[in-house]
Specification:
The protein is an alpha+beta fold. It has four helices and four strands; from the N terminus they run αααββββα.
């Protein structure tokens, strides 16, 4: 009877994977685009960036307080990591203004779309109100 119980436990464990192991290894296209983005420099034209990176997966154009921006998004990571400089689940944003690359990465994106909470500016700490607890004794 104990052999039957062991067999019933081992069969789902051994056969359950179906030969596939789920990992977070980057896809070849994502890996390639990650290295291509290193060649892109600020000031390049939109055509120069497309010659290096190819057409973007996501393209947006919008007016914000800073002016009219063209936003390209390339998938360079599997997901957003704190240091990955990506938004929207692994996409690196490229920000164009007047057909020139003016920024890339999450910080430039948040500044372009005017999300001041993400601008990196730190508000000064609030002053705690002074409370008197009566006479202070020093022993």
């Amino acid at each position: 009877m104990s052999w039957l119980a062991i067999l019933l436990l081992l069969v789902p464990l051994v056969g359950g994977c179906g030969g596939k192991i789920l990992t977070q290894w980057p896809q070849k296209k994502i890996f390639t685009e990650y290295f291509r983005q290193q060649q892109v420099k600020l000031g390049m034209s939109r055509e120069e960036v497309e010659a290096i990176m190819g057409p973007p997966q996501i393209r947006e154009e919008a007016d914000y307080r800073g002016g009219n921006f063209l936003l390209y998004f390339y998938r360079t990571h599997n997901m957003d990591y704190p240091e990955s400089n990506t938004v929207r689940g692994g996409y690196t944003p490229f920000i164009f203004q007047n057909n020139r690359l003016v920024g890339k990465g999450s910080r430039a994106y948040f500044q372009a779309v005017d999300r001041s909470a993400w601008s990196g500016e730190v508000a000064p700490p609030a002053q705690a109100p002074h409370r008197s607890m009566g006479p202070q004794r020093s022993w």
